[in-house]
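Priority: medium. Attachment 1 of 2:
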């Protein structure tokens, strides 16, 4: 799969969109701004990867580089500060404490907030809202430089050849492949057995059944 950032519905960056009906304006801003920054970061990274392959990039940046308009770095810094202060303010509203007025005051008391369950849940919720609608468009083919991701339908088997002398590593807690065992001298197979996978080096074939 490849990154398709330019095809993302612009509504995900709009704090006045329907999904934010009844949501605090401040929270809606944090979510939409976070999505914009996510888009910019991934788009810039994708452009760098394509340049290494001597391929053109069709990514259109929405933030400047600092020379004109609002830069990515400044927007990112401002969002981080506003996010932390927003979560701290909501926490203090529950506890009855006075919230920090700026990021400097927050940092003086950050240990207290970082141990507060309400603060952490609120922070995690905003991050989840930021990332979720972006995921379908940001699965990068650049991951293929490091790993291959394959979905195996339930009940079907997937075989792959290992084309190097590197040590083969099987992740035992992968979905649909919770247990594994050595199969033979040629490789490793994932079955319904208890022992974890400890392949010989270098294996040549791996079989997994969903």
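Attachment 2 of 2:
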């Amino acid at each position: 799969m490849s990154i398709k950032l330019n095809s993302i519905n612009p509504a995900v960056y709009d704090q006045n969109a329907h999904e934010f009906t009844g949501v605090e304006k401040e929270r809606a801003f944090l979510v939409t701004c976070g999505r914009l920054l996510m888009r910019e970061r991934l788009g810039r990274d994708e452009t760098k990867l394509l340049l290494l392959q001597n391929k053109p990039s069709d990514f259109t940046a929405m933030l400047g580089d600092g020379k004109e308009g609002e830069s990515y770095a400044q927007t990112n810094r401002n969002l981080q500060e506003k996010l932390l202060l927003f979560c701290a303010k909501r926490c203090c509203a529950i506890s009855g404490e006075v919230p920090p007025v700026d990021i400097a005051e927050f940092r003086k008391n950050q240990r207290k907030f970082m141990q507060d369950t309400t603060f952490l849940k609120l922070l995690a919720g905003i991050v989840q809202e930021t990332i979720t609608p972006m995921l379908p468009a940001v699965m990068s083919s650049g991951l293929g430089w490091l790993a291959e991701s394959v979905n195996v339908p339930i009940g079907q088997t997937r075989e792959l050849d290992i084309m190097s002398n590197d040590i083969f590593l099987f992740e035992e807690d992968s979905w649909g492949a919770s247990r594994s065992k050595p199969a033979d001298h040629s490789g490793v197979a994932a079955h319904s057995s208890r022992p974890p996978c400890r392949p010989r080096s270098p294996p040549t074939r791996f079989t997994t059944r969903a």
